[in-house]
Amino acid sequence: MRVGLLHFDVEEMDFVGPLEVFGVASTLTKQVEVTTLSKNGGPVRCRHGLRVHPDYSFSNCPSVDLLVVPGGRGAREWAMHDPETLQFIRDRSLKAHVASICTGALVLAEAGILDGQKATTHHKHIGALQRYPKVKVVSGVQYVSEEYVSSSAGISAGIDLALEILRKNFGEAVVIKVREEMEYGK
Question: How far is Cα of residue 62 from the mean position of the Cα atoms in its chain?
């Protein structure tokens, strides 16, 4: 399974949490490959100063089985208003499962990916997600995992969603091993 993590001005934990889950799964199973990408492929400065040097741009990104769209200020102020980013996500959603972390759900909603689907986001932004009448908004949950699209609530809920995606693709035994390696609850 190839996982593509989209980067822009994001909350670090929105992508680092899932990156850790899928990275540990890669080490344990050798069946997961994690890649990073941004619109232009250039370095991205995240909310709290972490700089990420993505592997790919939109133009040279290989196919992925899972596209992870993080949230944060950049999701709300830039990504959900950028036609090229929205089209990239739409195009990738035709062949990949798409998952949002936190307010990345607003990007997916704007792209139309969540139309007719259940979805959640950070509790402070549920009202913004409810402005999309075709989205079946679910509040008070850590994540929602549908057949082709998934979404998580707040920042650290992305770890829980990543573990659920692993469970669906590789089974409970792999999830147990990843949780043990990360020393992440039970």
Answer: 17
The domain tally of the chain equals 1
Question: What letter represents residue 63's amino acid?
Answer: S
The residues pairing with 3 across neighbouring beta strands, listed in sequence order, are 34, 66
The upper half-sphere exposure of residue 39, i.e. CA atoms within 13 Å in the direction of its Cβ, equals 14
pLDDT exceeds cutoff 90 at 186: no
Among all chains, which residue has been given the structure tokens 């036609």? 83
Would you tell me the crossing angle of helices 172-182 and 157-170 to the nearest 10 degrees?
Answer: 140
pTM of the model: 0.97
Query: Does pLDDT of 38 surpass 90?
Result: yes
Mean pLDDT in residue range 69-91 = 96
Can you give the pLDDT at residue 173? 97
Q: Write out the residue range of the structural domain in which residue 45 sits.
A: 2-100+156-182
